[in-house]
Every structure is written in structure tokens, then in C-alpha cells.
Amino acid sequence: YYHNNTIIYLNGAFVKAAEATTDFYSQSLHYGYAVFEGIRSYQTASGETKIFKATEHYDRLRNSATALNMPYNWDTDELIEATYEVLSRNNLRNAYIRPVVYAPANMSFNPNTESYLLIAAWEMGLFLGEKLLRVMTSSFQRPNPKGFRIEAKASGHYVNSILASQEAKAKGFDEALLTDMNGYVAEGPGANVFYEKNGKLYTPATGNILPGITRATVIEICTELNIPVEERLFTTDELKQADAVFFCGTAAEVIGWQSLDDTVFPAKWENTLGRRIQLAYKNRVTEAVKGELID
Ligand code: PMP
To answer: In the 8-state DSSP scheme, what is residue 271?
Structure first.
């Protein structure tokens, strides 16, 4: 993720990651009390590097911080500018960008009067996702929305993601699928899910999931391409009747599934709505026009 000369943005200054310091008594380190974002930049068709949906991501960062009662005094445009500066100082074009808002030294559960903010970035190329995923229904459920601010991208929630992902990989699968506290399909450890059945797409309604920015983009693409899409709750049994399934997220982009547990999905990925959306998504992030996909 970083080398000796990597620059991060830390509390208003551009500093070397290898020399930056943080507080060992931070409430974030001890209790997982922090919020973050996962953003991508792409080298677009015109050659210019652009951060995809930067405003949406920094607005969500603010909402996540607010949901956790963390002071947040940054302006979205200011942070976008700082992010472009991080990219340029590190010579990055296709990158993954990780802003984190975290707490100062505080060993109590009391609120803080300030927050810290860092922005790191590293190289991450456009991923064509040709290999379909073998997914396992996790034995871990997503955090109960009555116990967590599930709509916030909070660091502590990711202990659940790590457990689910590690369990799936230890059992020989590529990724996990988690249900909510009522047993309905929720999401992957770091991605939202859509399934296709008889020419229509379905995705879990919000409430028990992270409202993904890629999920919203997929819904926008469906509107553009006249693909019907419905947001509603469904079970894993229903999901196993699907013609095809895909995950979507900033890091994962749009990636098809081969199977869930023992069930192999019948449609050929090349012929699915997911594949059409995958191509449209790549065109969108790279600002290429249809038929000029760059990879
Ligand atoms: N669900 C979870 C739990 C995630 O961590 C992510 C990644 N941020 C997503 C869904 C997808 O969200 P986005 O499309 O905004 O990256």
C-alpha cells in the first residue's frame, strides 16, 4: 500500500506515510470507533484522471461521521481537492482512495471535541472480473440495525466482514454472502448483491445494508438501459432460483457469481443483464462512449 516516499493527507498536511504518527490512545484503535470511505479514480478516455462519484463518497463520509456523533468539520470540495493532490503527489491514475475519520486519545466512551482525518491512496487497476465467484452463505449475519448504525460506513462493522470473508475463504470459497438478523439476504462483506430472474433484476431494499454508491449507479444504469429493477427483501432460497447473480461495489465494480453454496447459476455470464451492466459501468467510470471500452 505504501513505500518510503508515499504521501498521505493527514489533518490538513501532505506528509510521508512512513514518517506519519498517530495516537496509540485513540478511541478508534481501541473500540473500532472510526468511519471511512472506499473511492476509486480512473484514467478516463480523455487521458484525465477522475475520481468516480467523489461528492457522493465524501457526503457519505460526513453522514457516517454524523451518525456516530463524530465531529466533522470538512468541506466536501476541499477534501476532493486534497484527494486529487494525494493522487498527483503519488503519481497515481487508477487508484483506490481510503479516507478515514478517527478519534483522538480517549479511553472513555464519551464524545470528542475533534476528529482526525487521513486520506491514503494506492494503485488499483480497472478489474475486468472475468472469473466468476463461488460464494458461500455465511454463518455470520450482518450487524443488527437496532444495535449499529448499519447505514454508516463504520470501521467497527468490518470485524463482521472480516469474520465472514475469512470463514468463506477457509472453506474454499471466493466470498461470503451475509443475511440480515431476520434471515433475508443482506450483502457481501464489502459489496451489494443483485440477482436476475426472467429478465428482471432484484436487490435487497435498504434498511439492513450499506446503501452502496455502486448499487445506486447500477440502478441508474438500469434506468438508462430500460432494465426493470426492484428493491425488496428475499431469502437465500429465492436467490438460489436466480438465473444469474452479481456483486457490486467500488472495489469489486460489477462481478458475476458462478454459484452460491452448491447451487450453480444457469445463465451464461456473457448473456446476462449483469454482464451488460458490467460493461456499462466500466464505460461510465472511464467516461468512454459505448463500444470504446478501455481496459
Ligand atoms: N456493502 C458493504 C458492507 C461495503 O463495505 C461496501 C463497500 N463500501 C458496499 C456494500 C458497496 O458500497 P459502494 O458501492 O459504495 O462501494
So the answer is: G
0.95 exceeded by pTM: yes
Q: How far, in Å, is the centroid of ligand 1 from the Cα of 237?
A: 23
- Is the CB of 212 within 6 Å of ligand 1? yes
Structure confidence by residue, pLDDT tens digits, 129-173? 679 999 999 999 999 999 999 999 999 999 999 999 999 999 999
Distance from the alpha carbon of residue 74 to the mean position of ligand 1, in angstroms: 22
133-285 CATH, one of 3.30.390.50, 3.20.10.10, 3.30.300.10, 3.40.50.300? 3.20.10.10
Model pLDDT for residues 245-261, shown as the tens digit of each residue = 999 999 999 999 999 99
* Catalytic-role residue among 153, 197, 268, 290: 153
| Residue 153 annotated as catalytic | yes
Q: Is the CB of 213 under 6 A from ligand 1?
A: yes
What Å distances lie between residue 261 and 25, 218, 264, CA to CA? 42, 25, 8
Residues of the chain with CATH 3.20.10.10: 133-285
Judge if the beta carbon of residue 214 lies within 6 A of ligand 1. Answer: yes
What is the CB neighbour count within 10 angstroms for residue 80?
16
Query: Given this structure, which CATH class describes domain 7-123?
Result: alpha beta
Portions of the chain given CATH number 3.30.470.10: 7-123
Q: What is the pLDDT of residues 39-78, one digit of tens each?
A: 999 999 999 999 999 999 999 999 999 999 999 999 999 9
Enumerate the H helices of the chain as residue ranges.
Answer: 27-31, 54-67, 76-89, 158-170, 213-225, 236-239, 273-285
Which of 144, 130, 75, 98 is closest to 251 using CA atoms?
98
Could you tell me the pLDDT band of residue 295, with boundaries at 50, 70 and 90?
Answer: very low
Q: Is the CB of 211 under 6 A from ligand 1?
A: no
In degrees, rounded to 5, the angle at the alpha carbon of residue 119 between the alpha carbons of residues 152 and 102 is 50
Q: Which residue CA neighbors atom 2 of ligand 1 most closely? A: 190
